[in-house]
């Protein structure tokens, strides 16, 4: 009887120890997530730098795109003939008591010295990547740089700031899960496939982004485990794909020092009713941002809730670059016809210099926290 009581007591002690260990791990993960939240001036942890307004700042833009060797002509609106310039003069001003520090490219290059920074996603991730390259180039104009390209199913661009040993890579991945050809030559979107993730290992900083291409059917079939279908609900497909990505991040990066960010939803401005104007207009011809939150009437994108829910359930802390609201106010910031496209309807991508510079300023802030 005494041996049985001793055994029971031992089991209870071990169970309590396991519970305490699990609680400790959860608390550590929670602390890591909280650590990445930007702070207000004065140290308040409740600051939300993603809520605020756009104000005119005559010291802007942070760089002249004409002097940047890394921005493609499709994003360089001035080069492509955009005549107005006020869209370059707006700085994001968080609601008090929050503050957003001025971007310091030399400080960031020193912080990333000897490191590899990788952007993975679609053309909106390219928007942010090329903006950051221009911001760093302007901050260190004399720094030696090398640029190279790699072709294949997932082409990539690499720029290395030699004097700092900083390597910045853009890796094309529209879905963050595998898009591959089967033996019959058909294109298959594999919702549980992450073979391309091998290329992301070894990065010290990873910035991911995906959503826009989920609405384009660029596949012949979708494969989910052993199930193969021609198509499925795109929101459901995005959710499954993002969960696969999250499991890959947790399995491969949770025990590493790699910093992981996710680019929030970047809105388009195709419906003027979203900013209180009669129907039938788009962002074309818009030259000023909206001046307050109440002026925007667009509905939340389902991606936002899916991303937040997925990130909240991960073991690896992932900082959401919550760019949606600040970008919703910038109906004036798109490339429209100043992207080399004769149709001139691009209300999705952004001029560089422009709105993506603020995305990178927030990345800079989060990276310093």
UniProtKB/TrEMBL annotation:
It is a single-pass type II membrane protein. Residues 100-364 form the Trichome birefringence-like C-terminal domain. InterPro entries: TBL, TBL_C, TBL_N. PROSITE patterns: PROKAR_LIPOPROTEIN. It comes from the Eukaryota. GO terms for cellular component: Golgi membrane. Residues 1-23 form the signal peptide. One of its GO terms (molecular function) is xylan O-acetyltransferase activity. Keywords: Golgi apparatus, Membrane, Signal, Signal-anchor, Transferase, Transmembrane, Transmembrane helix. Residues 46-95 form the Trichome birefringence-like N-terminal domain. It is found in: Golgi apparatus membrane. PANTHER family: PROTEIN TRICHOME BIREFRINGENCE-LIKE 39 (PTHR32285:SF196), PROTEIN TRICHOME BIREFRINGENCE-LIKE 9-RELATED (PTHR32285). Belongs to the PC-esterase family. TBL subfamily. This is Trichome birefringence-like N-terminal domain-containing protein.
């Amino acid at each position: 009887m005494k041996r049985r009581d001793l055994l029971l007591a031992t089991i209870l002690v071990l169970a309590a120890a396991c519970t305490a260990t699990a609680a400790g791990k959860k608390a550590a993960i929670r602390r890591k997530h909280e650590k990445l939240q930007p702070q207000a001036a004065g140290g308040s942890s409740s600051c939300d730098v993603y809520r605020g307004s756009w104000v005119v700042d005559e010291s802007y833009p942070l760089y002249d795109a004409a002097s940047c060797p890394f921005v493609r002509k499709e994003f360089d609106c001035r080069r492509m003939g955009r005549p107005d310039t006020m869209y370059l003069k707006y700085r994001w001003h968080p609601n008090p008591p929050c503050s957003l520090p001025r971007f310091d490219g030399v400080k960031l290059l020193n912080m990333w010295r000897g490191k590899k920074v990788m952007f993975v996603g679609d053309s909106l991730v390219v928007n942010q990547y090329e903006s950051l390259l221009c911001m760093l180039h302007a901050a260190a104009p004399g720094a030696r740089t090398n640029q190279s390209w790699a072709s294949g199913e997932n082409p990539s661009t690499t720029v290395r700031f030699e004097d700092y040993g900083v390597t910045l890579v853009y890796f094309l991945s529209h879905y963050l899960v595998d898009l591959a050809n089967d033996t019959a030559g058909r294109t298959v979107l594999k919702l549980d496939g992450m073979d391309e993730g091998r290329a992301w290992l070894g990065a010290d900083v990873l910035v991911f982004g995906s959503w826009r291409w989920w609405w384009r059917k660029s596949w012949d079939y979708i494969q989910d485990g052993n199930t193969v279908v021609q198509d499925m609900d795109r929101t459901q497909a995005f959710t499954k794909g993002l969960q696969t990505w999250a499991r890959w991040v947790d399995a491969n990066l949770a025990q590493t020092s790699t910093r992981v960010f996710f680019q929030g939803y970047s809105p388009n401005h195709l419906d003027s009713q979203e900013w209180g104007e009669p129907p039938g207009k788009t962002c074309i011809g818009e030259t000023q941002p909206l001046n307050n939150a109440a002026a925007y009437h667009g509905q939340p994108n389902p991606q936002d809730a899916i991303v937040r829910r997925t990130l909240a359930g991960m073991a690896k802390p992932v900082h959401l670059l919550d760019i949606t609201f600040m970008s919703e106010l910038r109906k004036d910031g798109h490339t429209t016809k100043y992207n080399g496209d004769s149709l001139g309807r691009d209300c999705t991508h952004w001029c560089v210099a422009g709105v993506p510079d603020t995305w990178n300023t927030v990345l800079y802030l989060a990276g310093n926290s």
